[in-house]
Amino acid sequence: MVLIYELQQKVLQNPKETALGLAAAFIVVYTASWVIIAIHRITFHPLARFPGPFLCRISYIYQIYYEAYLNGRMLERLPDLHKKYGPVVRINPNEVHLSDPELYHVIYRQSSPFLKDPYAYKLGAPNSLSMSLDPVKHRRRKEILNPCFSKRRVFMLQHIMYEEMDKVFASVSALAEKGEPVPIQDAYYCYTSDVISRYLFGKSLALIELPNFAKDRVDQLRSFTSSIWVSIHISLIRNLVLSMPRSVANVVASGWMKILWFCETVAAEAIKEHEIHGKLEKDLGQETIFDRMLNSNARKDETNEKYRTVGFQDLADEGASLLVAGTETTATTIAYATYYLLLHPDKRRKLLEEIATVERDDNGRLPLSKLDALPYLNGVIKETLRYTNGVPGRLTRVVPTGGLFVPQINSYIPEGSVVGISHNLIHFNPKTFEDPHEFKPERWLGEKGKELDHWLLAFSKGSRDCIGKTLAVAEIQVMIANLFTTFDLELLVGHEEDMEILDRVIVHSR
């Protein structure tokens, strides 16, 4: 007690010196602890023997700098890192990046024991299919949603695609008559968002009805991808915004948070409407995705847990996830397909010759079932997907018990470590694709083309692949085929840099 009293007196008598002493002590302790952690990471850590930049081996600073500060430029660094350090590169204390394409199908396969890395999947919407970390919950949700994305169901949505496309074309024609340039990517964003919103919850976002292709709204929604790396690496900012009153948070929130809040409102309304009417849209021709999820509650099967209750937060999270995935990546892919076809007139001409062989229906439409059977059109789409990638970078996974054997180094990566293989490194690898930097839709024709499907990773592979790939491809088929048979397009000179492909976890253009 005497010692404590004497200490108190010293503090009271010399508060300034005491504060400086405490600050100095804190700095010394913090620095010493950081040095100890760094020494452990480069000597005793399970990944200590794997090469990589020194800063990557001791901290996350290198990765945060290239991903958060430079906004997704880590992907561009990876080829150089592999040239310098080999097929396995340590890019942060607990993660290695791999360059061997063959390992992709080991890690990302059906019923893969390589589970999602929690660090990279903390953007919110944890009850959605894409953000779910639990493989059992993921499987149950996918069993509920899978029928919504079968080819038969997607083809039944053809009338919706054409209705929304016609609205876009009307706006494009209005600008063309005035001799004004068309912000085509914004137009595609309106198209894909209005299609997916109608299928999701039975109501169109009606972006195409807003002035100037809803540019302000589109920019707001696309801001989600502009801040995504900051949200992943600096979660404190996101959590701080979420803790604010909604009226305050709306001023500073990212597009993603606003989408989450919007979908919470839509989910609450959908539950009420479904209880009253039993379905959300009469002219869809089938149940909406929200209908499918809510109807699963009515299916009683005590032996099958996949029919667990789907509640409010499940709808809200799934709605936000599918709305973003079904809008941004599809619209961006259509934009790049348009761009590449305009850059290569010979390929555009081949495409038009093929489409001219399609017999239109009684309404003058190009039937989706016939577009789906066109080899060159699908070659154009696959080649665009190869170039752009829905997810250009890596989808990180945790190494399971037993480790991961890497033949190139004749060694194992220890269990519990995080691994990833970036899609771009495979899509532009001359070992998997000949002349990888040339836009060649014809590479996908014939039997050799079918073999290349093994290496088309735009929708990922295995049990965690993109559930909406059939819908995305159908939307692209309808838009590209009709766009080039309706309009005579040309690129606006001086905007080439706008087409730079950026890694914002999902593909993004400048």
Automatic annotation (TrEMBL):
GO molecular function: heme binding; iron ion binding; monooxygenase activity; oxidoreductase activity, acting on paired donors, with incorporation or reduction of molecular oxygen
CDD domains: CYP58-like
Database matches in InterPro entries: Cyt_P450 (IPR001128), Cyt_P450_CS (IPR017972), Cyt_P450_E_grp-I (IPR002401), Cyt_P450_sf (IPR036396), Cytochrome_P450_monoxygenase (IPR050121)
Cofactor(s) of this protein: heme
Transmembrane segments: 20-39
Protein family per UniProt: Belongs to the cytochrome P450 family.
Official protein name in the record: Cytochrome P450 monooxygenase
Source species taxonomy: Eukaryota, Fungi, Dikarya, Ascomycota, Pezizomycotina
